[in-house]
Design brief:
alpha/beta; Ribosomal Protein L15, Chain: K, domain 2; four-stranded mixed sheet; two-stranded parallel ribbon; 6 helices; rod-shaped
Length: about 150
């Protein structure tokens, strides 16, 4: 055959392009849906077939996906520092010189010291400290220095 007409040309003017009744070509509903639709997720139709082909993991939800990464900043409040002072001293994370406690926030594993709560002791803080915490430490007779 030398010149074959395209099917589109052949079907011009035929109203349904060889698809039978109008309803039959409307959407995927006439053939039962897309892909694995009708495998019995809801109606027990072909559940065994799905198990054989894909295993038991085909049904149900599996895990989750975290959408955003949160920037983790490890913070410490003044009241927590005062409360856990003995624990830090036992583990040698804080040093004591005369009446002042020397605290290196990086060695403790914290990024910033915040000013929530009150303190009873004098501290020399090395690391990132908020303004409120700095005022409270200096009022108690302590010092604040950057690392």
């Amino acid at each position: 055959m030398i010149n074959k007409r395209k099917k589109v040309t052949k079907y011009r003017g035929s109203h349904t392009h060889g698809g039978g009744a109008k309803k039959k070509r409307r959407g995927s509903g006439h053939r039962g849906g897309f892909g694995m639709a009708g495998t019995g997720k809801r109606a027990d139709h072909k559940k065994l077939m799905a198990f054989k082909l894909y295993g038991k993991d085909y049904f149900g939800k599996h895990g989750f996906r975290r959408h955003t990464k949160k920037l983790l900043i490890h913070i410490l409040n003044l009241e927590d520092l005062d409360k856990n002072l003995n624990k830090y001293l036992e583990k040698n994370l804080i040093k004591k010189e005369k009446d002042m406690y020397i605290v290196n926030l990086n060695e403790l594993g914290y990024d910033k010291l915040l000013g929530s709560g009150n303190i009873m002791n004098k501290y020399k803080i090395i690391g990132n400290v908020s303004e409120k915490a700095k005022i409270k430490i200096e009022e108690a007779g302590g010092l604040v220095g950057e690392a």
